[in-house]
Write a structure and sequence with these properties.
- The chain is an alpha/beta fold.
- The protein has a single domain, classed as Rossmann fold, CATH 3.40.50.880.
- The chain contains 7 helices and 11 strands.
- Strand 8, helix 6 (133-138) and strand 9 (142-143) form a beta-alpha-beta unit.
- Helix 4 (89-100) crosses helix 5.
- It is globular.
- The two termini are 17 Å apart.
- 50% of the residues are buried.
């Protein structure tokens, strides 16, 4: 019998241009393997986005459409995509809604940029790529340099090498 700890769970993974390829695809495939339904959520600017290394990812739905759906978690990959996402109000609104409804909000690398724009970092302990430390601190977060940080239902990691710990933490919270 296959281990399917996420059977029946629905996870949104945010997508925009120049996403960090591993930080989108590794969790997407890992969560599907664990039985989750994984849906990519974009800004609506394009139907397909290229990652930093050129790998394409299709947008299944827009953040505006995602607002009307019931997800168990949202994952924000890094790369430059979070900077493009926060140029539109809907992705930040979606992340904020997930946070307010006590759903899992997970971000890696530059992903906390979108969390800062959503206004959900005040008094929260988290990590991210070292270049976003000032953004996290200025948004009221407590930055720590650790492989994975879990603060309630907020899960963050720093870089692609942290993906195994990041995915394990999200799966543990969802199981």
């Amino acid at each position: 019998m296959e281990d399917m700890p996420l059977k029946g769970k629905k996870i949104a993974i945010m997508v925009e241009q120049d996403y960090q390829d591993l930080e989108l695809w590794y969790p997407l495939l890992r969560f599907q393997e664990a039985g989750a339904e994984v849906i990519t959520v974009g800004t609506g600017r394009m139907k397909e986005y290229k990652g930093k290394f050129g790998y394409p990812a299709k947008e299944h739905i827009t953040a505006d459409q995602a607002m009307k759906m019931n997800f168990d978690a949202v994952v924000v990959p890094g790369g430059w995509a979070p900077d493009f996402m926060r140029r539109y109000p809907e992705p930040a609104k979606f992340v904020k809604k997930m946070y307010e409804h006590k759903k899992i909000v997970a971000a890696i690398c530059h992903g906390p940029w979108l969390l800062a724009s959503a206004g959900i970092l005040k008094s929260r302990k988290l990590t991210g790529f070292m270049a976003v430390k000032d953004d996290i601190v200025n948004a009221g977060g407590d930055f720590v340099d650790e492989e994975v940080v879990v603060d309630g239902k907020l899960v963050t990691s720093r870089k692609p090498e942290d993906l195994p710990a990041f995915c394990r933490a999200v799966i543990k919270l969802l199981s």
